[in-house]
């Protein structure tokens, strides 16, 4: 939703600057957003209604942005590293369980945990990236 809003701002700016060297921009500076308040035009009411529909949904989309902005990236990296370490330990436990597994319940446990581990490893790789 936020990306759509930024794209709309870029398209609006390009439309307003058609015929100038700024009419085909591929990006804009964030301080440009502050200038939106000063924009006036003949079709302002129509575009304001359309814009309000987009902006009204942003509250839900951006609910956790303030919390995320307050996070320390070093702490986050440390927590992800701890998760990766935990996954390694669980993998070791699963290997030991499979070596001694004689009962069907142990087999079911291993099967269930291997499914969990696959998903968890994918998530951690994504977080690390």
UniProtKB/TrEMBL annotation:
Transmembrane portions of the chain: none
Record organism: Salix viminalis
Family per similarity comment: Belongs to the formin-like family. Class-I subfamily.
Listed name of the protein: FORMIN-LIKE PROTEIN 2
Residues in FH2 domain copies: 1-129
UniProt GO MF annotations: actin filament binding
Any one GO biological process: actin nucleation
Database matches in InterPro entries: FH2_Formin, FH2_Formin_sf, Formin-like_plant
């Amino acid at each position: 939703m936020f990306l759509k809003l930024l794209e709309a701002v870029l398209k609006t700016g390009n439309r307003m600057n058609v015929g100038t060297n700024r009419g085909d921009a591929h990006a804009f500076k964030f301080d440009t957003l502050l200038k939106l308040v000063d924009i006036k035009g003949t079709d302002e009411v129509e575009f304001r209604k359309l814009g309000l529909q987009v902006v009204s949904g942003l509250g839900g989309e951006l609910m956790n942005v303030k919390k995320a902005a307050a996070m320390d990236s070093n702490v986050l990296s440390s927590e992800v590293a701890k998760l990766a370490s935990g996954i390694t330990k669980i993998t070791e436990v699963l290997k030991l369980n499979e070596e001694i597994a004689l009962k069907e319940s142990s087999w079911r446990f291993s099967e269930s945990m291997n499914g969990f581990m696959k998903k968890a490893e994918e998530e951690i790789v994504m977080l690390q990236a």
